[in-house]
From TrEMBL:
GO BP terms, alphabetized: fructose 1,6-bisphosphate metabolic process; fructose 6-phosphate metabolic process; fructose metabolic process; gluconeogenesis; reductive pentose-phosphate cycle; sucrose biosynthetic process
Cofactor: Mg(2+)
PANTHER family: FRUCTOSE-1,6-BISPHOSPHATASE-RELATED (PTHR11556), SEDOHEPTULOSE-1,7-BISPHOSPHATASE, CHLOROPLASTIC (PTHR11556:SF35)
Name of the protein in question: Sedoheptulose-1,7-bisphosphatase, chloroplastic
Pathway(s) served: Carbohydrate biosynthesis; Calvin cycle
Pfam families: FBPase, FBPase_C
InterPro entries: FBPase_C_dom (IPR044015), FBPase_class-1 (IPR000146), FBPase_N (IPR033391), FBPtase (IPR028343), Fructose_bisphosphatase_AS (IPR020548), SBPase (IPR023079)
Oligomer status and interactors: Homodimer.
Domain Fructose-1-6-bisphosphatase class I N-terminal: 23-189
Record's keyword annotation contains Zinc: no
HAMAP family membership: FBPase_class1 (MF_01855)
EC number(s) per entry: 3.1.3.11, 3.1.3.37
Amino acid sequence: APKRRFTTVMAASGAALEDWLMNNEVKSELSTTIRAMFAACKEISYKVRTASCDKVACFNDFGDEQLAIDILSDKVIFENLTNCGTCATASSEEVPKEVPISENGSYSVAFDPLDGSSIIDTNFSVGTIYGIWPGSKLTGITGRELSASGLCIYGPRTTMSLAIDGVEGAHEFLLMDDFSGRHGSWVHVAEFFSVAEGKLFAPGNLRAAQDNDGYKELIDYYNSNKYQLRYTGGMVPDVNQILVKGKGVFCNPASPTAKAKLRVLYEVAPIGFLMEAGGAKSSEGKQSVLDIPIDSTEVKSQCCFGSENEVKRFEEMVGVPDFAE
Ligand code: P6P
């Protein structure tokens, strides 16, 4: 497991985000977009801990009931990206926004501002997921073309897991926070290059096992081989644990009555890019999730992320049922 370099949240000894981006020779326009996402997530980290998580009796463009914090998080990200000259944005909370094409914008960002917000009231960890693509298109693309992707985890600590095309590994940054929501700074504290075999499993969409025999057999295999169950229902911490622990498997399969619910643009592709950069494998049942054509912002897919053997087991036992959307 990676050696962490911080003793307390206020005394991390890693490189500051800006220095780390420069040391890794990240192109300035990509660096600007990445830093905008870090700034937005820092603000959301504060708001998640202070804003109301009441339902606001309104629904997003996809019919999901929204919480005040959903809308707040979406707004914070959009504002930070607009200020940094992004070409286009697409949020899982609303129909794609085509921001005015900025004269110096080179990237477009798709994001799920607060994934798992339905479990905020239980005080479970939630997160932000984002993918940064070159150019101004957010459809007619695949995860293979990603320039960068990240996961921010709002848990007991706020951390960001980030992968950048051309920079080896997945990287963890800690928000060294004075908890004022204004003065915290991001420092690099760990890097991940491999996901080994290990008996930790996070089985999503469990109801799909009722009419997906392959999935039922896979769950039976995990149980009879004494795997550790580690599942909260929040995709961000549930997949991030596999990077940090360097082992295990997360899956969210489909069935005729429990269709694929995770969206490729906002969740599956950015997470696949990050996990594969961190040494994991990914699959939608027969191929890497990075090869799924993103023909619309709403394309959904089953997915699996984990060590090579665990992903292979998923492909052999679950595969791509003909009903998977
Ligand atoms: P299930 C949360 O709403 C979410 O989109 C993901 O964060 C999470 O992995 C999934 O749904 C949970 O789905 O069917 O396992 O409860």
